Automatic annotation (TrEMBL):
PROSITE patterns: MFS (PS50850). The keyword Transmembrane applies. Its main location: membrane. It is a multi-pass membrane protein. It holds the Pfam family MFS_1. It is found in: Membrane. The chain crosses the membrane at residues 49-69, 89-109, 116-135, 147-167, 187-206, 212-235, 268-290, 302-326, 335-353, 359-378, 439-463. This is Major facilitator superfamily (MFS) profile domain-containing protein.
Length: 488
């Protein structure tokens, strides 16, 4: 039998490797025949790494813009001449807006394609960062208009957030082979908390005084501009010419609304959506309120920033190790359940330790462990959502899980703030002496630990699923003769 010709793709460049397969002698219009014809030139393109870099930069930039004021909430409140609640609303607006926009983002990702989501998201992200910076231009501001520019800019960035967050699973499925999907999803997903890490690290250093808040806007605007330029110039197709895996041939075969109906009937997916959303909501509130939680007992912005930074660094390490392990073993469920249990234990430890004084090293260790176990769940749960809901589109399955997280995050942030107790400023506090009162977060942190523990118990006990995408790929692999595989 003659080997099929290798077709070079001038747009995507030469493939790294190709699996060349014969098309079986069946009716040429049969579904199986058409699928195998597409599989006859499965190959990987180097451009997938460029798109991954663009998505990582965009994800990091959007996260930095979201959380930029939280590590310096007291300094920001002084600069804007407003209360801490107003500063918290700058983070909260992301959650409020991204909930309704999330459904539109899911539809756009599964219907129009990956490239539209990346480009539109990058332009919205850049525009929002520019509008935010306008709050520091004197001739544009009168009265309280600087707050208007800030909230409008944050709102535009918030519209971009669902497009940015929903992309990793779709990117991994469309551009990466089966043995790289979890790792690619992990890298793209963890770029968002990496942006939070940078903000926790940079904000206290840059904005050590209120006069440096304008510099903060400029520094965080640069990555947004670069990401927009790279996305507009380089992400010009929604998928490679030939698929990287068997499941990529039939990616997002279900229509959007049909897929949503299937998801709502999928018991395993609903459990995952609720429990993952609960964890995501807890982590959102934790990142936004960390500085305010710690300053009550005298911990400085530097300690809070260090805790937030190591929370992300060790989270990236945990996600990397678990992602590589899952790519090799495909033990999605086992890894998520173990990490869920350990995360709940570390959050309980934080709830207790954050109410004690002069134990900064212990708090740093606890926050690092929360990140290590908690962020390991993030990318693997996204892959698990796709596995248990296949062939529903990746944008829909991951999008609904994130929307669940945004809804619960919004609820948690409101509830936790309502559980705080106001106290007069004391010399032991480091919460900014310009404030007339500070807040005790002890009750809020205990409730946070309780919610995390309940979510972990529900997931560990009730979540069970088959890996539908892997089974579909295995079924197609079994139909192909082993000696027909030729690697370029």
């Amino acid at each position: 039998m003659a080997e099929p010709d290798i077709v070079q793709d001038p747009e995507h460049g030469a493939p790294e490797d190709a699996l060349l397969l014969p098309v079986t002698e069946e009716h040429p219009n049969s579904d199986r025949c058409q699928t195998l014809r597409k599989l006859s030139h499965i190959r990987l393109y180097k451009k997938r790494w460029f798109i991954l870099i663009v998505v990582c930069l965009l994800n990091s930039s959007n996260a930095m813009l979201w959380i930029s004021f939280a590590p310096v909430a007291d300094v920001t409140a002084t600069h804007l001449k407003c209360s801490l609640d107003v500063v918290n609303y700058l983070s909260l607006v992301y959650l409020v807006i991204s909930i309704p926009i999330g459904f539109l983002a899911s539809w756009l990702l599964d219907t129009l394609g990956l490239n539209y989501a990346i480009i539109i998201g990058s332009w919205l992200n850049m525009t929002g960062s520019i509008v935010r910076s306008a709050s520091e231009i004197n001739f544009l501001n009168s009265g309280r208009s600087n707050l208007i520019y800030l909230f409008v800019g944050q709102s535009i960035c918030a519209v971009a957030q669902p497009l940015v967050l929903f992309v990793p699973a779709k990117l991994a499925a469309v551009w990466f082979p089966e043995h790289q999907r979890a790792t690619a999803n992990m890298i793209a997903s963890m770029s968002n908390p990496f942006g939070i890490f940078l903000a926790n690290l940079l904000s206290p250093v840059i904005a050590s005084q209120e006069k440096y808040i304008p510099l903060l806007h400029g520094v965080y605007g640069i990555p947004a501009v670069i990401a927009c330029i790279l996305a507009t110039a380089g992400v010009n197709e929604k998928a490679p010419l030939t698929p990287p895996s068997i499941s990529a041939v039939n990616s997002a075969t279900e229509p959007f609304f049909t897929g949503l109906k299937q998801l709502m009937k999928n018991r395993a997916y609903i459990i995952l959506m609720i429990c993952f959303g609960s964890g995501l909501g807890i982590f959102t509130a934790f990142s936004a309120f960390l500085e305010q939680i710690l300053c009550f007992n005298g911990y400085s912005n530097f300690i809070a920033g260090l805790c937030g930074a190591l929370f992300i660094v060790f989270g990236a390490i945990g996600a990397l190790l678990c992602g590589l392990y899952v790519d090799r073993t495909k033990k999605f469920t086992e890894v998520v359940k173990i990490c869920f249990a350990l995360t709940s234990l570390t959050v309980i430890a934080f709830a207790v330790a954050s109410n004690l004084k002069n134990i900064a090293p212990l708090l740093v260790v606890i926050c690092s462990l929360i990140g290590f176990f908690g962020f390991a769940i993030y990318p693997i749960a996204m892959e698990l959502a796709v596995e248990c809901s296949y062939p529903v589109g990746e944008g829909s399955s991951t999008g609904l899980a994130f929307i669940s997280g945004q809804v619960q995050g919004l609820i948690f942030m409101v509830v936790f703030q309502s559980l705080t107790k106001p106290y007069a400023v004391s010399p032991l506090s480091s919460c900014g002496m310009n404030q007339t009162e500070i807040y005790d977060w002890s009750m809020a942190t205990l409730v946070m630990a309780g919610i995390c523990s309940i979510g972990a118990c529900i997931f560990i006990i009730f979540f069970h699923t088959d890996y539908k995408r892997l089974k579909a790929e295995a079924g197609t692999e079994e139909e192909r003769p082993e000696d027909a595989l030729v690697q370029e």
